[in-house]
């Protein structure tokens, strides 16, 4: 480990508050604060935060609260069936063991064709992971998101928490209506690209070079 790469053991609150949600929230706040204060910081030992019991429990709650919780993966199990047949403590303990010993392997997603909104009979493919895979993905997101969030610009709206395309359009409208004829260069120029068949659509300021591309959650949890 480089000398300028201190371990992240202090990410958990020294005196853990009651409840896994507050514990995870405190961990996220520290990771984000470190990432914002030291842009070149390398984060090590993040995987211990991913398979921490509190992280996995919060991740399971997020998966269970998602409207896709009733859809099973290739193993045929829904969130409700996991709770009834296995039990949440046993399910998460087994998952944590697999993550810690390196035996965890994601399963293929179950493919389903669903109709496109106002698609005139057109449909698109939807991949449905197993409940276990969804929990691991949610746990990775809980740990990695506060780190990468520190690198985004205020004008970045795509695939970020509590932001959506409508917010980007509202931002354009806000700055566009502030333009005055004597000072046309003060207007904000934007290019809006929409592609319903892919995830490449978005809003981009003309002349601005993106600072950081959106990272993959599975591209390496131990480094930034």
How does this structure look, described?
The protein is mainly alpha-helical and 224 residues long. Helix content is 39%, strand content 9%. The protein has helices at residues 20-37, 47-50, 53-65, 79-86, 88-101, 131-149, 165-176, and strands spanning 110-115, 123-128, 190-193, 202-205. It has a two-stranded antiparallel ribbon. Strands 3-4 form a two-stranded antiparallel sheet. The longest helix is centred in the middle third of the chain and has 19 residues, at 131-149. It is flat, with a radius of gyration of 21 Å. Mean pLDDT is 77; it is low at 1-6 and 194-224.
Topology overview:
Layout: H1 20-37, H2 47-50, H3 53-65, H4 79-86, H5 88-101, E1 110-115, E2 123-128, H6 131-149, H7 165-176, E3 190-193, E4 202-205
Antiparallel strand pairs: 1-2, 3-4
